[in-house]
Write a structure and sequence with these properties.
single chain; mainly alpha; globular
Length: about 100
């Protein structure tokens, strides 16, 4: 089942790859991570998925267009997050900008 494969691959990213996606994971589990990074109904899952995408892009283990995530975060989701999660994402996006991954 497809959901099982996404779940298994996500566990690998979290437990064996220190939260870094690789290019070979463009569909499993990256598709799930990318979808969750646009849905802040679960603030913790949203934050974790954005952090995975940001750190993977900054460290060049995976490529994601962080500009679209940044715009969605800044315009629609930032203020709805708890302050501690907002602080983490603000710092991660600032690092991405510093490293040239955001315009």
């Amino acid at each position: 089942m497809e959901a099982d494969r996404h779940f298994h691959e996500l566990q690998q990213v979290l437990h064996r790859q220190n939260g870094y996606l690789s290019d070979g994971q463009a569909f499993y589990p990256a598709e799930t991570v990318e979808l969750a990074a646009y849905n802040q109904q679960d603030a913790v899952a949203y934050t974790v998925c954005l952090l995975i995408l940001i750190q993977s892009t900054v460290m060049q283990t995976y490529w994601a267009d962080l500009s679209s995530y940044w715009q969605e975060y800044w315009k629609n989701n930032r203020e709805a997050l708890p302050p501690n999660l907002m602080k983490e994402l603000d710092a991660a996006f600032a690092l991405a900008r510093e490293k040239g991954e955001l315009d």
